[in-house]
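Chain A, query sequence.
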Amino acid sequence: MTFHKHSLIVLISGAGIVLIILIALIVNIIRFQNKPIENVPLKSSATTTPSMENNLKVSDIIAKYEPASISKEGFGSSYFDQPGVKISFKKSDLSPVYFKSESGGVNYIIVFYPFEITKSRQHDNYIDHTTDNYYNMYLFTPTNGGYLTKFITTISPNGGSPEIKAAFFANADKDPEDEIIVLTAWPQDHADIQGILYGVDIYDDPKHMSDVNNDFMSECECNSNGQHETALYTNEAAIRKHLKDLGY
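Chain A, predicted structure.
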């Protein structure tokens, strides 16, 4: 068989083109196989689901992040310098109180750790001991790998030991961010008044955590000198309604 010179050149050129195409395909396949996959959500695991801490119960999370010591913020130096009085702090046997609440798409945990303060006062021939119950309030913010904890305030006795009734986020001022709102109750058992005292405290958004102007006054659902007093803001729903009426 005889090939013309022109036909041989065409055949060689065609084979070269095919070879180039094959090489290009092989290179692209290799590059594709080694290219990292981007913007693909990671599967749930202990490290990629910090808000659940590998499906730990909230009570387990609270125990895991419990502060090593009781915060004494809010107690002035004079509190510890009372003449003849010995002050001791210790963790309470009560369980922590917590509320899960969302603000700005973040699932927070608001935690109240109980503790006791015992005052021992020396008298002439005996020592008088009085014990009061308190709560340290913390905000748990989920982050990659766990939670950030921030001390907010101390909830103190007021006639009786505090009981945390509600803690939640809602707007309570002129800025767009939500505030933390805490409803506390204190039993009252005095000679002239019996019942429950209610107080609403408002703390600015999690970035600032300062007190804001509070439209809520302390109220007592009490019997006093034969008269009955009624408290209006004794639950979360009533507080939210009042904030809405104020235009927040």
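The longest helix spans residues 5-34. DSSP finds three helices and ten strands in the chain.
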